[in-house]
Design a protein that fits this description.
It is built from ten helices and no strands. The protein is mainly α. The protein has one domain. The protein is globular.
């Protein structure tokens, strides 16, 4: 079984560990850690894009699981909402990963950039949004909206991936009325499920580099634990600021990808 560690120089391995830690921290606070982690994975000699994606998901699930447990111990998010949402998101992520095998991500990137710009503007010009939890829906409607969010964003995570945690948070804040802190706590539970859904697709294809994935996972765990504790301590205002920074970085990264593909 290929571990993925045999041909890696020590300097590259250190860079991957640092990137995994940073990605775990960012993911725990607002999502978007894949912006840091995936490019570092592509530095591994001989790694294919599919191996990088699969191993990235393996590392990420360690971090999201750690931050989800840390958030739960301190924020106590409502599992009656988070667990059904996570179950639907897992199925959606698996479906997205299946479609990703047949369609290029470049087809969807312009739509994602437009959505991210709208999200950034909404968050920047509505500073009071996400400060306090003011639920917008009651009864069954609340759970239906949560499951719809989980299914759509889970599908997106399996199909493309960057910014899944950020999309989850802004959807929970804007569509459901949660404060940023509680939205982050729920988003980690759902994001853990979306990572698992994509992994279920990748596992039978032998794309995982297990040794490298475990190293990445340990770094993600450390970053996820610290990031969740930081977010809980600093609160919703801090999360909102980091959220805007990460969404801005996502817009620049995906916009640059589109520009490169247009002139390739």
């Amino acid at each position: 079984m290929i571990s993925g560690l045999e041909s890696i120089e020590l300097s590259t391995l250190i860079l991957i560990v640092v990137a995994g830690f940073a990605a775990g921290w960012v993911d725990a606070v607002v999502g978007g850690g894949g912006l840091i982690q995936l490019p570092a994975m592509l530095l591994v000699p001989g790694i294919s894009p599919v191996q990088a994606l699969a191993t990235n998901k393996m590392g990420s699930i360690f971090g999201t699981a750690t931050s989800a447990v840390t958030y739960y111990g301190r924020v106590r998010p409502d599992l009656r909402t988070a667990l059904p949402m996570a179950a639907i998101a897992l199925a959606g992520s698996f479906g997205g990963a299946v479609l990703a095998a047949t369609l290029p991500a470049s087809v969807f990137k312009p739509i994602i950039v437009a959505a991210l710009v709208a999200v950034a503007l909404f968050t920047a010009f509505r500073p009071s949004v996400g400060e306090l939890t003011r639920l917008r829906h009651d009864g069954h409607r609340h759970y239906v909206v949560a499951c719809l969010i989980g299914g759509v964003i889970g599908f997106y995570d399996g199909l493309i991936g960057p910014g899944t945690g950020s999309f989850l948070i802004i959807a929970l804040v804007s569509a459901m009325g949660y404060a940023f802190l509680e939205a982050s706590a729920k988003a980690k539970i759902v994001n853990m499920a979306t990572n698992a859904g994509a992994l279920l697709f990748f596992l039978p294809h032998g794309s995982l580099l297990w040794g490298l994935g475990l190293v990445l996972g340990l770094a993600n765990m450390a970053g996820g634990y610290l990031g969740a504790r930081t977010a809980v301590k600093q609160g919703s205002r801090f999360i909102r600021i980091v959220f805007l920074v990460v969404v801005g970085a996502l817009i620049l990264k995906l916009g640059y990808d589109i520009w490169q593909e247009s002139f390739a």
